[in-house]
Design goal:
10 helices, 13-stranded mixed sheet, Thiol Ester Dehydrase, Chain A, 2 domains, 438 residues
């Protein structure tokens, strides 16, 4: 498969940010109509991702309108019909030829840093949603698009940092004010490789549209699938969204009906740890003893075009903490498998004091070849002056242990994680039930 070919969309190349071709743009002319505008390096969110830089440059006219909408402009009122091909975009990482870019994305195992990739996925998904929603009238006020949730992100195979990589995405479904964007990370080691075998990672992002002044839900452009594959994706997404609503209601009833017995079973071993620690199971560990925490002040360099902190930045930081938590717990290098569904409950603003708290929620040990470590990361926005703390996101990551690392340690076995309190046990059961709905 040729990663440089894309029949339905132009591919945007990604350059290393240490030597970007956009630092000193030439003056405007027929081939460079954007000359004379504010240097792109000074635009929001430009300091942490080569992909964001490339996307801003490729769609500069669109984003300039979002950054500086006409004063007292009326809101978008006309609802247009777009096709998936209208929003389709792809970005190409020339890892094989760009040494600096390769070094920016390399992890200790010569693979792509998953945290940076999550950040890039969010940036591309946001650009695609803007492309679908924006109208053709430069005098109207653009919609405010917010990341509402991220569906399960699944890593299908390791992603090498030595081979060119491509991310392709488009809008696959819309509701009245919501949009679903599907992204595929593609990398093939051999020419002529089957397209399905080349997909290394899949991700679906849900965005909601708001009026930028009132904050109320706003209608988005309709979607008209054209090809058989596009129609299939639309139908699947529609059924999935309806099914999730029904399943969540049913799961709550099932949880309530059997809650007491399940809680009691989970808490039995935890009580032994607390009341008779000398008799506790040595192959188990209390949930509280797996915890790690990070904190930071959100900086202007991490903001998006709306002045809020990138959802991708939050995912990146949460992933790094989750990886560290799994590493400290297992004692061997973890291997990322997936991020479960993520809801963005409230926006994070520049200047917010963000605290990320992680723990190993539970382990799954029935598959000896691939034991699973389920890590929870909760993001809190803390305001010391107001004595308040609010949860903004909860992330659930699943890791296993790298086979080559496990081979170096004979008799390796993960410990079972035991909740100590009823609140911890409820979180474990809710997570297990959510996993069973997938």
């Amino acid at each position: 498969m040729d990663l440089n070919s894309s029949p339905s969309s132009a591919t945007i190349p990604v350059f290393s940010t240490f030597a970007t071709p956009f630092d000193n743009p030439p003056p405007a002319n027929d081939s460079n109509p954007s000359g004379g505008r504010k240097p792109i390096a000074l635009w929001p969110g430009m300091y942490h991702s080569p992909v964001t830089t490339a996307l801003w440059e490729a769609k500069s006219k669109t984003f300039e309108r979002l950054l500086d909408p006409p004063k007292d402009a009326p809101p978008q009122s006309e609802v247009l019909t777009r096709t998936p091909s209208h929003s389709r975009m792809s970005i190409l990482y020339n890892f094989s030829s760009d040494f600096i870019l390769r070094e920016q994305y390399r992890d200790p195992w010569n693979e792509v840093r998953i945290g940076k990739l999550l950040e890039d996925l969010d940036a591309l998904a946001g650009t695609i949603s803007v492309k679908h929603c924006i109208d053709d009238d430069s005098t109207t006020r653009p919609l405010l698009l917010v990341t509402a949730s991220v569906d399960k992100i699944v890593l299908k195979k390791p992603i090498s940092v030595d081979i060119d990589l491509k991310i392709v995405g488009s809008v696959i479904w819309v509701g009245r004010s919501s949009i679903e964007v599907q992204l595929e990370v593609i990398q093939s080691k051999e020419e002529g490789c089957d397209a399905a075998d080349s997909v290394a990672l899949t991700a679906n992002f849900i965005f909601v549209a708001r009026d930028s002044k009132s904050g109320k839900a706003a209608p988005v452009n309709r979607l008209l699938p054209e090809t058989k594959h596009e129609k299939l994706l639309f139908e699947r997404a529609d059924k999935k969204n309806n099914l999730k609503k029904r399943k969540r209601g049913a799961a709550r009833k099932d949880f309530e009906n059997g809650e007491a017995n399940r809680l009691e079973a989970l808490l039995t071993e935890g009580r032994i740890f607390c009341d008779m620690p000398a008799l506790a199971d040595r192959d188990s560990i209390l949930l509280r003893d797996t915890r790690l925490e990070n904190s930071l002040i959100c900086q202007p360099q991490q903001r998006n075009i709306h002045g809020r902190i990138f959802g991708g930045f939050l995912m990146h930081r949460a992933y790094e903490l989750a990886f560290s938590t799994a590493y400290a717990f297992a004692g061997l290098q973890p291997y990322f498998l997936e991020v479960d569904h993520v809801d963005f409950l409230r926006p994070v603003d520049v200047g917010d004091f963000l605290r990320l708290k992680s723990c190993v929620l539970y382990t799954e040990l029935h598959h000896h070849d691939q034991p699973l470590i389920n890590v929870e990361v909760v993001a809190h926005v803390t305001r010391p002056e107001l004595r308040s703390s609010e949860v903004t996101n909860t992330f659930y990551f699943t890791f296993t242990v790298r086979p080559e690392a496990k081979a170096t340690k004979n008799g390796f076995r993960l410990r079972n994680v035991v909740p100590e309190t009823e609140e911890e046990a409820r979180r474990v059961l809710e997570r297990m039930d959510a996993d069973s709905l997938q």
